[in-house]
Amino acid sequence: MDRPRLAFLASPTDDARAAQAALAARHGHVPPEEAEVLVALGGDGFMLQTLHRHGALGRPVYGMKLGTVGFLMNHYRPEDDLLARIAAAEPAVLHPLEMLAQTESGASVGSLAYNEVSLLRQTRQAAHLGIELNGQRRLDELICDGVMVATPAGSTAYNFSAGGPILPLGANVMALTPIAPFRPRRWRGAVLKSGTEVRFRVLDPHKRPVSATADSHEVRDVIEVSVRECRQRRVTLLFDPEHNLEERILSEQFMS
Question: What single-letter DSSP state applies at residue 197?
Fold first, then answer.
């Protein structure tokens, strides 16, 4: 078996740094730009950080859980043959969401999100938002704490905790989910085709300011936010066959 060039990336915890040193000593280590596979050591937050920092390289990423949450990670088993695990791993191709936010100051800020783009009220005042899909007004006024657009990979995270649906991987859909909606009281959100452009307008930005967050990148005092799937960017996550991402997403729907 050819030995792939590996880059070991670790979150700033002691366990992750110790694992990074041990694995690099055993398998060698190259910079991410020279690697064939990136190995991310940490939790889901660090995996998202890795995708944001190095996703443009187009290298597959094999994660191992050395953090609090590890839905996007494989188990860390230092006694196993890492090269054999990587060779047998199954790929999951993800496309991020592309957010473009306009602020009260006139700035235009773009960012990518592999989990979700969320709009949240900045003060105790509920947000008042209008929602357009592909240029057509669908909701004149949503009064809520916030609203989000989630990818299938991110549908089991914040989206699910807010009452949104879990989406199958590869279904080419995304979730539009309100957060604590007050009006319309019975609106539960929608499942949209992945090619849909979602546009949010903040109806009263001075009295009811709103922030927009793409994964962990926050933009405050937004007046308009558009979200669409970015087909030009794709990342590949590698998973052990017995616990691949598609199986994890399916299993989440049957958990009590």
Answer: P
For residue 195 the two structure tokens come to 């090619």
Query: What does the pLDDT look like over 94-129, one tens digit per residue?
Result: 999 999 999 999 999 999 999 999 999 999 999 999
**Domains, in order of start, for the chain:** 6-94+234-252 (3.40.50.10330), 97-229 (2.60.200.30)
Query: What is the rounded average pLDDT of the residues 196-202?
Result: 98
* Amino acid (1-letter code) at residue 179: I
Q: Which residues lie below 8 Å from residue 249, measured CB to CB, with a gap of 6+?
A: 152, 153, 155, 156, 166, 167, 168, 169
Residue 185, CB half-sphere, CA atoms under 13 Å: how many? 0
* C-alpha 163, offset from chain centre: 17
Sign of CA dihedral 134, 135, 136, 138: positive
**Which of the residues are catalytic?**
44
Whole-angstrom Cα distance, residue 181 to residue 172? 26
Q: Taking the CB of residue 207, how many other CB atoms lie within 10 A of it?
A: 9
SS3 content of the chain, % helix, strand, coil (to 5): 20, 40, 40
Each residue's pLDDT tens digit, 140-158 = 999 999 999 999 999 989 9
- In angstroms, the first-to-last Cα distance of the chain is 42
Buried-state track 223-256, b at ≥16 Cβ within 10 A, e below 16? bbbbbbbeeebebbbbbbeeebbeebbeeeeeee
Q: Where are the beta strands (DSSP E) in 159-253?
A: 173-183, 190-193, 198-202, 210-214, 217-219, 222-229, 235-239
Cα(206)–Cα(106) distance, integer angstroms: 14
How far apart CA 180 and CA 80 sit, in angstroms, is 45
